[in-house]
Amino acid sequence: MADVTFPQRANVLIIGDFNVGKSTLINYQRTKQFDNTIVPTIEIEPSTISVTVNGKNMIITVKDSPGVKEDSIKYGRFVFPEFQNCAVIVFVYDKTHRPSFDQITYLKHMVDELVNRRMECILVGNKCDIAKDDDVTFEVGHERCAELKMDLFIETSAKKGTNVEELFREAALRLKDMELEFGSTKVLPESENTPKSCQC
Ligand SMILES: Nc1nc2c(ncn2[C@@H]2O[C@H](COP(=O)(O)OP(=O)(O)OP(=O)(O)O)[C@@H](O)[C@H]2O)c(=O)[nH]1
Ligand SMILES: [Mg+2]
Model confidence over 87-133: pLDDT tens digits? Predict the structure, then answer.
C-alpha cells in the first residue's frame, strides 16, 4: 500500500522524439524488465508508478506521450495542453541519435512559452548502454541542461535499468517539493537541496 499519494494534477509528463525510449523507461520502472516489443505511442497514456523515496513508497502518475512532431497541429492539440496538467516534465533524447537531442531545445521553448508557473524540468539522455564516443556525450547533455535552465540532467538505460529508479525518484521528490502549489499560477521559489546532476 502507498504511504504517499499526490493530488490529481501532480503528474509527471514524459516528452521527446520518436523512438528515444519514453515508454520503455516507464515500463522498466513498472516491471523492472526491459521489453523490446513496446509499440509506438499514439496518444497520452497515464500510468501509475511506484517509487521508494526515503523509505516511503510513493505512487506517482506518469503520462507517456507520442513522439514529438514539430509544427504538427495534432501533436500540439494532444500534448501541449498536458503541460498545464503536470508539475514535472521529463525531456528524453536518445544519446545515439543527435536529432532527438536537437528536438529538446524546441520542446523546452514550447514549455516556456505555454507555461506561466514554476515547472521542474528533467533532461534525460537515454540508451547509455549502446552510446559510443561520437554520440551525444554526458558533457554536451549537461551543458544543454544548463543552457536551457533545466533542473536536472541524468543519463539512463531503459535496457539495463541504469538510473531508471533514480530518475523516477527525482521526479517524485520534485512533485513532493511542489505539492502544496499544484494548480497554482504564481511563481514559486526555487527548490534547494536537490542534486543537479547524476553521472551514468
Ligand atoms: N539499447 C537500448 N534500447 C532502448 C532503450 N530504451 C528503449 N530502447 C529501444 O528503443 C526503441 C524505442 O523505444 P520506445 O520506448 O518505444 O520509444 P518511445 O520514445 O516511447 O517511442 P514513441 O512512442 O514512438 O515516441 C525500442 O526498440 C526499445 O526497445 C535503451 O535504454 N537502450
Ligand atoms: Mg512510446
Answer: 999 999 999 999 999 999 999 999 999 998 888 999 999 999 997 87
Q: Whose CA is nearest to atom 9 of ligand 1?
A: 21
Q: Supply the pTM of this predicted model.
A: 0.89
Identify which of 17, 20, 22, 24 to mutate to test ligand 1's pocket (most ligand atoms within 8 A of the CB).
24
Classify 12 as helix, strand or coil.
strand
Q: What is the side-by-side order of every strand in the sheet holding 152-155?
A: 45-53, 56-64, 11-16, 88-94, 120-126, 152-155, 197-198
- Cell numbers given for 19: 523512438
SS3 191: coil
Cβ–ligand 1 distance for 100 under 6 Å, the answer no
Architecture of domain 17-178: 3-Layer(aba) Sandwich (3.40)
Backbone angles phi, psi at 54, to 5 degrees: 50, 45
